[in-house]
Amino acid sequence: MLNPMQIEESYKEFMANLGDWLHDGITHIDLKFLHEADILQTLQDDKGEPDDLTQYFHVIESVEKVTLFNEQFIVWIIPKMESDQPVTYVLIALNQPEKAHLEIVFTTHGIYNTPRYVLKVLQHFLIDTLETEATLISIEKGQ
Fold it and tell me: Mapping DSSP to helix (H, G, I), strand (E, B) and coil, where does residue 85 land?
């Protein structure tokens, strides 16, 4: 697991050349995405479960961002202003022993730029990444 100084170095490296690190580009969260990912329904059904996956992180807060990290993931939540509109960027990386590996970047804005939406979308991507990693490991073991 990377230490906080290595995590900060990874963040700076990713932000310096964000376009070079992203294979799929930045995912912009909108109504279509929320419907396709079934997040709207889960928000309505959500009872505020204390076992929420996004609660198992160490947190580092700074003026620029909030950094969440655990043994599997590093997440940077970066609030910004773009054209006088608040936007939140979220970077999700795998926390690998030698170096972080950037997996997903998404943005929220407008009515979807609330902590509730940001955390629900973050949880969706974390679960999706865990499932993808498990599938890849099972395929590798099968070969």
Answer: strand
Structure tokens at 33: 């995405």
Contact criterion met (CB below 8 Å) for 105 and 18: yes
Q: How confident is the model over 15-35, as pLDDT tens digits?
A: 998 888 888 899 999 999 999
Sheet holding 66-69, edge to edge: 27-28, 100-109, 85-95, 73-82, 66-69, 58-61
C-alpha closest to that of 27 among 129, 96, 135, 131 = 129
pTM for the full model? 0.89
Contact 85, 94 (CB under 8 A): no
CA atoms within 13 A on the CB side of 95: 20
Q: Which two tokens stand for residue 28?
A: 């912009």
Q: What's the Rg (C-alpha) of the chain?
A: 15
